[in-house]
Amino acid sequence: MPLLAGKFAIVNDTLQKVEHSVEAMIPFLSISTEICHCAILVPAMSPGRMELCGKALAEAIRTVAKKHKWEWGTDFAVCGYY
User: What pairs with residue 5 in β-bridges?
Assistant: First the structure.
């Protein structure tokens, strides 16, 4: 998480334990050993802050995808649940 750490993200397993919207999907994603998943919880925030965080997340995803030569829709995807 170093690309987002500090200003835009924290690692907090306590928050993940009380979040239930993703847990129903995890067994389906875990069927294949080739699939890795990363849950990202987005708390309530102002629209301005959401825009800053969204741009930082997009840049982090772009950086990682470029480094690993991943193609959108073939090697990785982003799914949203709320």
Answer: 9
Task: State the SS3 of the chain.
Answer: CCCCECCCECCCHHHHHHCCCCCCCHHHHCCCCCCCCCCCCCCCCCHHHHHHHHHHHHHHHHHHHHHHCCCECCCECCCCCC
End-to-end CA distance of the chain: 22
CA atoms of 3 and 64, how far apart (whole Å): 9
Mean pLDDT by 10 residues, the chain (82 residues): 74 70 69 74 89 92 94 87 64
CA distances from 50 to 9, 37, 53 (A): 12, 22, 5
pTM: 0.71
| Assigned token pair, 67 | 């480094």
Q: Find out whether 4 and 56 touch, Cβ atoms under 8 Å.
A: yes
